[in-house]
Amino acid sequence: MEKRDALYAGKAKSVYTTDDPDRLILEFRDDTSAFDGEKVEQLARKGMVNNKFNAFIMDKLKAAGIPTHFEHLHSDTESVVKKLDMLPVECVVRNYSAGSLCRRLGVEEGLALTPPTFELFLKNDAQHDPMINESLAESFGWATPEQLAEAKTLTYKVNEVLKQLFLDGDILLVDYKLEFGVFKGELTLGDEFSPDGCRLWDSNTREKLDKDRFRQGLGGVIEAYEEVGRRIGISFD
After folding, report:
1. Fewest CB within 10 angstroms: 28, 133, 183, 210, which?
2. SAICAR synthetase/ADE2 N-terminal domain spans which residues (predicted)?
3. Cα pseudo-dihedral 169, 170, 173, 178, rounded to 10
4. pTM tops 0.90, yes or no
């Protein structure tokens, strides 16, 4: 597959067109940012680690019947993906209290949430990705009721698959975000699933093994990502 023009560059990934109009190349860079870009660093190996982590997770989800945009690895830092018409919303599931939920509600970190919560956020950097609801998404045309219902169903299905996958590696899946788009009429999981977009804690010690290590200056960010990968069966060689 021929990599062509740069289509989009985000905080940590870049997207390129290819010689196939229905396929893109997703490049994972070593860039790392937090707090709406206020804290930015380059972390060696991060692009490679997240690319292979995402490929592994997407394959697991596809095997469970969840449609994803991932096709195959293109290089150590690149993947071939389907070109989706993305919905401008993020779906968030929380299995334990952490992050913005604690700040919003004044609850302590680490509370088990039964059942897990489901939230929607608008993808809008200028507005700091505000929390929204289904009614707002419908009224502003960000998604149809049918798309929202399907996104919620798929997001919870992802939770069923990944909670057990991580737990088998003695890791708690605390929370995560997903993005969806449409490919040839089918709602399809897009973007990525890596420790950049979820919270993962050691199930015994509650040690943080995700991007919070970068946000909170704990160090060992990529080492933690690789440790998670090793526990669930990913090889980064």
Report:
1. 133
2. 7-231
3. -10
4. yes
3-state SS class at 225: helix
Q: Enumerate the domain spans of the chain.
A: 3-82, 87-219
Q: Which two tokens stand for residue 43?
A: 């972390």
Answer whether CATH 3.40.50.10170 is correct for domain 87-219. no
pLDDT tens digits for range 32-76:
988 877 888 999 999 999 999 999 999 999 999 999 999 999 999
Residue 142's identity, in one-letter code, is W
Non-local CB neighbours of 220 within 8 Å, separated by 6+ positions: 213
| Paired tokens of 93 | 């599931």
Q: What's the CA gap between 25 and 6, in Å, rounded?
A: 9
